[in-house]
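Quick one:
INPUT:
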């Protein structure tokens, strides 16, 4: 019925990111990156490489996101760090040892990772890159199956539209998460928006999500209530008998159109 969920391994070259943020006022937010990646699938590995003695300000942010920090001391003589080679070794090892991981995310703009991208693709892996506009090599970006620029990421708190403030707080939270998840699936070019697919996305965005917390006995009843409030439009799939979202309602705010098939 629904498409298979992708399984992601995320490798972060923090040295390269730090270079891209060197002249910026704002700090790098790993939550913005992860909020976008959970729309792709289930993240099972998160690792970041750097000489962390130089980036103490970011340690807590990384720990809170449950990212494993790999300490790679800077080479004093050459001035070059060895984070890149360690990242490559770990990614290749995972490629061969964990065959269930089908998507590799390289958070870096360094062209040195282009051979790694090619090798992963050669082994049937989908490769997604994330990097800064100013510090990303065109060679790397064009070699990936998909590349996302950090500057184009929405903040985790962003919403496609403001819901009716007259709604009870819990109901508004549930509906907003529902709409955000549908928008994410549309952005991923999903052709059919099955209710199971939407619920999976909601749980990836908010792992503690449970419709009963919001007062619904089933996820189906939550969707029916959202349709009653003119936020979404539903139809029943004749074969499976389950709901499919076919459009947004007039009260969903500014949202992208859902393709019709």
């Amino acid at each position: 019925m629904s498409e298979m969920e992708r399984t992601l391994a995320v490798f972060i070259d923090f040295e390269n990111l730090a270079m891209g943020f060197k002249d910026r006022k704002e700090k790098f937010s790993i939550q913005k990156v992860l909020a976008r990646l959970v729309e792709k699938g289930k993240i099972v590995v998160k690792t970041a490489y750097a000489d962390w003695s130089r980036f103490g300000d970011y340690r807590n942010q990384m720990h809170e996101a449950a990212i494993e920090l790999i300490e790679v001391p800077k080479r004093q003589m050459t001035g070059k760090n060895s984070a890149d080679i360690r990242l490559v070794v770990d990614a290749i090892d995972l490629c061969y040892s964990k065959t269930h991981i089908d998507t590799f995310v390289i958070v870096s703009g360094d062209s040195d990772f282009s051979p790694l991208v090619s090798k992963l693709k050669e082994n049937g892996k989908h490769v997604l890159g994330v990097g800064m506009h100013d510090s990303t090599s065109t060679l790397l970006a064009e070699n990936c199956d998909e590349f996302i620029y950090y500057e184009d990421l929405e903040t985790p708190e962003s919403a496609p539209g403001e819901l009716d403030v007259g709604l009870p707080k819990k109901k508004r939270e549930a509906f907003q998460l529902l709409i955000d998840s549908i928008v994410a699936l549309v952005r991923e070019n999903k052709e059919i928006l099955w209710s199971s697919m939407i619920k999976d996305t909601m749980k990836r965005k908010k792992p503690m999500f449970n419709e009963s917390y919001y007062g619904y006995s089933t996820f189906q009843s939550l969707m029916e209530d959202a349709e009653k409030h003119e936020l979404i439009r539903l139809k029943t799939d004749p074969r499976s008998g389950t709901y499919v979202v076919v459009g947004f309602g007039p009260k969903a705010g500014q949202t992208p159109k859902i393709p019709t098939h």
